[in-house]
Amino acid sequence: MACHPRRPVRGTLLAFLITALVSILATGCGSGDTNSSQGTVPRNAGAIETDDTAQPGGKIVYGLIAETNGWNPGSSQWAASGLEVAHTIFDTLSAFDAELNIQPFAAESFTPSADYKTWVIKLRPGMTFHNGEPVNADAVRRGFEYLKNSTLTHDAFEPVESFETRSELELVVNMKQPWANYPNALATQIGVITEPDWLTSGDVRNPIGSGPFIFDSWEPNASLRVRKNANYWQRGFPLLDEIEFRVIPDAGTRSQSLEAGTIDIMQMSDPPYIRRFLEQAGSGRYQVFSDTKGETAEVFVQLNTTEPPFDDPDARRALAYATNKQELVDTIAGGLFTTANGPFPPSSPWYTETDYPQYDEAKAKELIERVKARNGGKFEFTLIGSVTPGTLEHMQFLKQRWEDLGISVKLDTLQPVSYTH
Q: 172 - beta bridge partners?
């Protein structure tokens, strides 16, 4: 959910950046065991649409939910906030269009062999990195090889055998096995184009990409600034001169910053604040962007299935049957969101109907007693989560409901991590 004041933007939210921000920011907030659709959140409340020609210049200040531990795709972990920043500095080889079809982006084309075991990636001519070095097949090859050997990203390259350059702008990717949707992966962290000398140096603080904005400065847990790339390959873009990303983890503080005008746009996942801004958008004060066909945010419980009690399938099924997802959504999220039954929302091209167990108190109690009979009358575990208010509310709700059905639950919390690179 993205919100910003309803005021003329004078073209500072340029055509390119509007598209990027909508796709990055409009992540609906879900609740369930996996992923969620957008429930009853209105689409783009108060949004201003105009055919006026965007004018160059200006700056926006963007409120981030969390800090990121660095900007090197081979070693840094980019969650939602990290990806929002990364997409300003780095291009990806592919990107999803408005209908969620994968398209070439920094790549001009992707050509597979008949058996999908070889892919030829052709790059766009004339692209340069922010330090002036050319974006060519050898640079992309070096980046891929580094990421393939990285502990963080190695698994994502498991189907890949090798890379070779065919020409200045053509890279050949040889697979161990067919990979028909390989271009989809290149829209993610492993598909960003980075200056290879910087990437392989291991530096996480001073990123060099080919994207629409050039890294300027970073004060961890406070602010990151990027400035316009005047030599960007998409001629005429970007129009903005500068973006400042401010890390404001607390939803209340972030909301107050937007209301005070110290930030221009933010992401929001907390239901009370979403409702407040939706109401104000209805009166013409804010624009709220929530319409997305892409993947949505989720609330989920991850089980350690290698240790008791959840190495027992009956314990896993018992917890699923004991979880009233709709009650949780209604109680904690005010009914804003939709429950989930699989890893993708219905809007996703990868969505598939599942037979995930739904709330059933009788079945839950039966399985709980079965688990207890095998474990000396006990069914207990510790639920661990962050100390953020939204997470604590979810944990406390689940603990109470599960204990009502006979499961013993202890709560443990983790402090948010501060990054000091």
A: 120, 164
